[in-house]
Amino acid sequence: MTREVGINQLKRRDFLKAGLVFGAGASGLAAGYAAVPDAFARAVYAAKKEGMTNENILVMIQLAGGNDGLRTLVPLADPALHDLRPKLAGPMVSQALPLNSQYGLNHNLGGVKRLWDKGKVAIVQGVGYPNPTFSHFESIRIWETGDPTRRQVDGWLGRTLATNYDSNGHPLTGCACGATDAPGALRDLQATLTVIQNQKTFGFTGGTEVEAAVGALYKGTPGIYGALFDTAIATATETMATLRTSASTYQPMADYTDKVRLVYSSKNQLAAALQLAAELIVTGTGVKLLHVTLGGFDTHYTEINRHDDLMGYLDSAVSAFYQDLAAHNMADKVLIATWSEFGRRPKENASGGTDHGAAAPLLLIGDPVQGGLYGAEPSLTTLDNTGNLKYSVDFRSVYQEILSGHLGADAAKILGSSYDRVPFLKAPVAV
Amino acid sequence: MSVAPAQDQVITAPARTRGITRRQALAAAVATGVGVGVVRILGGSMQHIAAPRTGTTMDWISPLKSESARVMQLLRRTGLGYTPTHLEAALSDGFSKTVDRLIETPPAEPPVLAAANTPGGRFPVAQLQQWWIDHMFTTSTPFAERMTLFWHGHFTSDYRKAADDTFMYWQNLTWRRMAMTDLRSMLMSVTTDPAMLRYLDLATSTGQSPNENYSRELMELFTMGAGNYTEADVREGAKALAGWQVPQPDSTATVVVDAKNNVTRKLPVYSSQKSGVFNPRRSYKGSVTFLGKTGPLDTQGVIDRILAQPATAPLIANKVVQHFVTARPSTGYIKNLGDTFRRSKYDMKTLMRAIFTSPEFVADQSYRSLVKSPTEFMVHTGRALGISSFSKLVAGHGSGMGQSLFDPPDVNGWPNNEAWISSNTVVERVNFVTAAMGQVKGSLPSPSDGIHRHLDGVLSPQTASLLNQAADDRARWFILLASPEFQLK
Description:
Number of helices of chain A: 15
Number of strands of chain A: 14
Number of strands of chain B: 9
Order of helices and strands of chain A: HHHEHEHHEEHEHHEEHHHEHEEEEEEHH
Number of domains of chain A: 1
Number of helices of chain B: 24
Oligomer: heterodimer
Helix content of chain B: 40-55%
Shape of chain A: globular
CATH architecture of chain A: 3-Layer(aba) Sandwich
Largest interface: A-B, 69 and 82 residues
Strand content of chain A: 5-15%
Structural class of chain B: mainly alpha
Radius of gyration of chain B: 25 Å
Distance between the termini of chain A: 20 Å
Distance between the termini of chain B: 30 Å
Helix content of chain A: 25-40%
Structural class of chain A: alpha/beta
């Protein structure tokens, strides 16, 4: 059933694509589809790719810099919190939005709280990995590759693209929205992906003449960067063609405001990125794996205002996104998940902030979610030898559930091993 | 078609098999049947490409056997592009004299930025960006700007968190002056730089309750690299470094920050550039155990202990090489450069000279082995077209390509080389060329000269073919600047 739907969905956009001079036939050829040159035939091939068994979509939100878990899911009744954070704890506890007698959400997560009340938010507590690194870049890489041993170079979502979908010829299958370069999580040499910073300006200002010339210019480019350049342009031109059609049929059904308070002089860019994600989803462009990033979480300093404001950004963007998807009858297909390279130190520093930490909670939001708290509550009194929270859930367990339960992918193949399940999905498609 | 084909000799590349990656194999498969010979135009005019062929050559043909090509590559990598005048001077000097001149000429100071005396440094960052870009175009020492840009990405800070554009302006002045000195004095300048004190929170750290941010990044990103120190070193280093604060202002000014509600604030005013001040009352009094030794330790002691670590010199050497030579250096090359650097007491002139005069710098494999950063690409474009007054355009186009000056993506500065290539950034590069061409009033330089000056006459079949088909000089310049060839250095 789902395969047939897949073909029908792909049909529309492949008719569009047939008008293109330069598609991503490039990678199609190399992947062995030379015998199926026709765009529509390739689409059929794509839909039949093994493993593409449902229409579910994943949106990963990176909270870059290390999100303070204790200010996201606040322990309400633990006196140890006040000992560790004499300056920070008071307001964060008194203003929190209680979920039960023990935990509350950051007071700026009102929209997430409303989704929680409807059973659409799962929070996995104490997520981390063994022997944590406190380097942003090492830990980001570990989360991106799904490999704390640092041997894997491809991203976990990139490997999912390569094993679960046919992204060759369908560059929007994986897309980074609101970014200028590809996030490590989506990278894989065998997968094609699109990067769009801003949908309104994504296009050749020189018009179709320039588009045609550049398409011809970036073909068979020699040198070590040649294929990267050629793929970038081929992907871009095909994506533009798709967006040209989708932009005319998409009407946002929510207010994606970027005019909350400025954080570090930045507007809420997450809102615009998620609006673009919504557009790609509701117009049937074939997107499956989307990645967006909100930065600024490295709150070593004056954390009270900055972190609360960032929570407000997350809340308003995610609330609008969910509302928009629901209004377009797509909410049942989309799982939203947050990730961050680490949490923060339970003990505050002299700057009214917190230093790099370890375990932290992740949020999973959407209709596919079985709402509730998962994982063991991290102890504030039994810390590890660096003074950080001990993890109880390996982050790859969360990946495992997303991959097998939501995307119907072979999680063990992608992650290299099987991990304990965290049953945060209402109706997992495969176990 | 307006360019008549000439009968000059056409050289196609000999087949090479070195280092074909999966990606390249993909490209090879695509190109098969289209014609893959990499064509080098020897004469002064353009010509048709040889008949389509199905070779397996995937490399550019290196022209680096010739002195002039080596000089052009040197300028491309060290000078944010060049004008015909710059090029003629360097070609007449030759490679080694040009290296001497680059390294020994003291940096030309940029003009004073008038906005820098704005109370609280509250002026638009675009003014700061345009001020620097203007200087990149007009300076007599472009290498100093290239090095300042390099250090801006290495010892990075962003205007958002520094929250004072005067501090960011000072940092730019400091980085330029220190760029070719020695790492020991540089690290002291970096540690006490007011924008850095804010950006990595050392300004609010105290011995009693240290903030680890600067201590960690000083070791992880600025000097030694992850894996060469322990978490205990981070904590102990943070204690030893605590006590620095941003400088006291010379005066304050009362400024209306919200006219509607008549809100005023007292903001600092500085009459001259200052660095951070050490407040012993905020420092740590006891002894620390840092990188293997125990005892009382001040900031200079922290820096000296870091410089005594074998990991520091190779990290800096590797970073410089990624920007100036190759994205994939051999470990032997980095080790040699690191040894030279350390033996010279971390002298930057020694390191840069060793790099530019190394065989690796002009090896065939190094040809087009680096991707120009957006700033290099944009400034080079302006210079090639002979326009110098479009800093506003350059400042406005950086972010779409991934590089907005004074606003790095994170504490690791900007990523490099292949990270500059995505569907978004390549389109934005092309759009910048469209915008830049729109700024050219009047006649253009000869595109044929441009192909030799900026692309060494080494073109892909596609680029050569499009140049042949181009209707006029505007179209030829567009293709030249938008080509993959011009994105590389």
